[in-house]
Amino acid sequence: MSKTVAILLLLLLLKTYAVSFKETRRAHRIRINTQSLATTESVAHYATTCAALVDKTLAVDNPPQSFIDLEESPVGNNIPTDQESKIFFNEETEIQVFTYKILRTFIRRRQRELFGNNGPRSEVTDFLASALTFRRIVNMLSTAGGADWDYSSARKLFESKSFPNAELLLTAPVAPTFPLFFQLYAMHGEILLKTIEQLPSKRGNILKKLLEMEAFGRNATDNVRYVLSSALPSGMPLQAWYERHAIHNSLHRHSPDAPSTLSEQVAALESVNILSAGSSGNMERVKIDDVPAAFNDLKTDKAALNKRQLQFLELRNEVPPLLKPSLELYAKALGYLAGNDVKRFKTTIAQARQQFQEALAKQQAISNALAKAETEFVPATRRLGNYLDAMTHYRQNKENILHLERP
């Protein structure tokens, strides 16, 4: 056999048996298969945070039952069609499209498992996946040092009493294959999602009810009207409720890692409910390390302790760099408690608390400076420009693109 033929055969074998790097995230039932170790680790982390976002939004605590596969395709090849539990991508897949695809797949999985069905209709699923795409990507941008897309264009419209139709936002989703329109739709959808989350109902219940009716094939408009009519206070129309809250929800950049929100989340994680002394059944929240009975009870409940430790680590993944070390220290403190090292637990959690408060003050100062700079140096016309350009393009070409309106 000639040397040239041997080389050709070797190249053919390498192509046939291409090296792949795999990782399994069992907590969220995700399997990743890519062509490089770095890509596998990156996708695994990102997909895990997306799965956690879906579960947090729907208030689902139990692990999923079925696996979702994320597989990288070689650049230059046509990406295979996605399947119910398998998503394909490559390095050219736009992050907005990739985020939407995996979020939508995670939502549909929960829909199947919660309700034993997954009908052909998907308007509510698509709305929720779009809103969470905006929420996830803007959070990622702000974590990296400042979001380059916020609510400013929507806010200017709201201030002039111009609001989208809330029912259409829920029932007429825009596909991510139309990037600019999708980004605008997702932004307005995320604002609407926040108004729904503020309805007087247990977290996740309304969204799960909408998904349940969709799972059994109910018409999206009937579905929305039926579920929300009973959830809205005193029979208030959806549009009125949405308009009442949309302005407030668009006042600031979206960021679940805003200092005030983070402070509340950490306060909840570092405290427990106990029965008030001398009270008749009243409960109060106290810091874990303040009452020996509290952490003694917690350290014997390994499942609860591990869950709380995981919540600190998941929160660490979402926050700006300044705050990460203190949240890692909180998780480390709980590790000491799990190992019955109470002295190191109390010392470490006190250090974590001090570091967190110091970092939070610095982060608040940065947020204030950015907000001031935006007000002083970025004119409203510039903030609104992208939106107006998109709407002009839409009006000129709406007969040739996706229909955003209904008769």
Question: How does this model look, in words?
Answer:
The protein has 407 residues and is an alpha/beta fold. Strands 1-2-3-4 form a four-stranded mixed β-sheet, covered by helices on one side. 62% of the residues lie in helices and 7% in strands. It is globular, with a radius of gyration of 24 Å.
Features:
407 residues, 16 helices, alpha/beta, globular, 6 strands, 2 domains, single chain, 7% strand
Quick overview of this protein structure:
This protein has 407 residues and is of the alpha/beta class. It is built from 16 helices and 6 strands.
Beta percentage is 5-15%
**How is the biggest beta sheet arranged?**
4 strands, mixed
How would you describe the shape?
A: globular
Helix share bin: 55-70%
Q: Any idea of the CATH topology of the largest domain?
A: Neutral Protease, domain 2
Give the beta-strand count. Answer: 6
Widest β-sheet, arrangement of strands = 1-2-3-4
Label the CATH architecture of the largest domain.
Answer: Orthogonal Bundle
| Overall CATH class of the largest domain | Mainly Alpha
Provide the succession of SSEs: HEEHEEHHHHHHHHHEEHHHHH
Tell me the count of domains: 2
Fold blueprint:
Elements: H1 3-16, E1 21-25, E2 30-34, H2 37-58, E3 68-72, E4 86-89, H3 95-115, H4 123-143, H5 152-159, H6 166-171, H7 179-197, H8 205-215, H9 220-231, H10 238-249, H11 259-269, E5 271-275, E6 283-287, H12 292-300, H13 302-318, H14 324-338, H15 342-377, H16 380-397
Parallel strand pairs: 2-3, 3-4
Antiparallel strand pairs: 1-2, 5-6
Helix pairs in contact: 2-3, 3-4, 3-8, 4-7, 5-16, 7-10, 8-9, 11-15, 13-14, 14-15
